């Protein structure tokens, strides 16, 4: 009887530990590409396509794509297309997520990132924007991110230095 009780307690502990880890883990699997569609961006905004990857298409929601778009500009940047440096955006926070983990955890969990991103086509997808691969789905959405607003917010919160502080050295 003791042995059965001991096994049941160990099993419950393993389940509770693994369930806690799943809640903390956020899968940021995506890539950013410059849009081939000719969509004009307002000054201070950047228009591009975010491709999110996942095992279930239903999990690749508009919110996930919006989150990935902001996350990408913060930590990866946006590479220029083949024709030159047009569209090149350096990461706003090149030191990475871990440098300000509590701030970014709160920023993404609370949904504050949503005020800096919107869909250019009201979230409608073009043909070829939902692709079923061998093991996962790939969903692409055209977004517009308020790059200047995001940069100003990070400067105000002390996460990155402003341009004025760089020139005043």
Key features of this structure:
169 residues; alpha+beta; 36% helix; globular
Plain-language structure description:
By secondary structure, the protein is an alpha+beta fold. The chain has one domain. It has five helices and five strands; from the N terminus they run H-E-E-H-H-E-E-E-H-H. Strands 1, 2, 3, 4 and 5 form a five-stranded antiparallel sheet that branches. The chain starts with a helix and ends with a helix.
Structural class: alpha+beta
Radius of gyration computed on alpha carbons: 20 Å
Which regions have little confidence, pLDDT < 50, spanning 5+ residues?
A: 20-25
Write down the overall mean pLDDT: 79
DSSP strand tally: 5
In what range is the share of β-strand residues? 15-25%
Number of H- or I-type helical stretches: 5
SSE topology sketch:
Elements: H1 2-24, E1 30-34, E2 45-54, H2 62-75, H3 101-109, E3 117-119, E4 130-132, E5 137-146, H4 147-156, H5 163-167
Antiparallel strand pairs: 1-2, 2-5, 3-5, 4-5
Outline of this structure?
The chain contains five helices and five strands.
